[in-house]
Amino acid sequence: MMIVIIGTNCSGKETAANYLVKKGYEHFSLSDIIREELTKKGLDHSRKNLFNMGNELRRKFGDNVLALRALKRIKNQKTVISSIRHPGEIAELKKQKNLFLIAIDAPIELRFERSLKRAKPGEEKTFEAFKNQELDESTERKGLQQVRKCIRMADILIINDKTIDDLYKKIDGIINKF
Questions:
Q1: Using CA atoms, how far apart are residues 159 and 108, in angstroms rounded to an integer?
Q2: What distances in angstroms separate CA 156 from CA 6, 27, 88, 96, 114, one per listed residue?
Q3: How many CA atoms lie within 13 A of 140 on its CB side?
Q4: Exposure of 153 by Cβ count < 10 A (0-12 exposed, 13-18 middle, 19+ buried)?
Q5: What is the average per-residue pLDDT within 86-106?
Q6: How many Cα atoms occupy the beta-carbon half-sphere of 89 within 13 Å?
Q7: Which CATH architecture is the domain 2-171 placed in?
């Protein structure tokens, strides 16, 4: 089974993916593919560079480029793919059998608090800047990130506004249905 996790910044996508790894899933983050490109070019892995490089790769090689690169690496029947930010990636992944799309979201105020706590380099320090970044990542212009559109394409939406254990229970409930 292949699980694809879609979601907004600091919604819990990586937490969910890491939980599935503990359950035997292999994990691929499309952002890791972008990080490899940034490293090749000697650029830091800031959020802005990730955003720009991802959009550049989509413009040069097509909206599905990151999904295609991830699919070439998959060896395990049980796989989770995260950091999906474009409908073209979803369209490519949907060609696979036994695919389930999970969207994860949380109120923006809570996600901003999580962002401040994790303090990754390049993340916004003010709520206004965080909201503007979200708008940039949710545009529906060709070749750019379209996170909100991806969320609407999911099979199920998890609202992750409680504890990590609550998120884990929701994920367990989903995978146990299969």
A1: 11
A2: 10, 20, 19, 18, 23
A3: 5
A4: middle
A5: 95
A6: 33
A7: 3-Layer(aba) Sandwich (3.40)
Which H or E run contains 48?
helix 47-61
* Paired tokens of 146: 């379209």
Residue 80 pairs in a beta bridge with 3, 27
Neighbours of 53 (CB within 10 A): 20
H/E stretch holding 166: helix 164-176
pLDDT tens profile 23-82: 999 999 999 999 999 999 999 998 889 989 999 999 999 999 999 999 999 988 899 999
- Give the domain ranges of the chain: 2-171
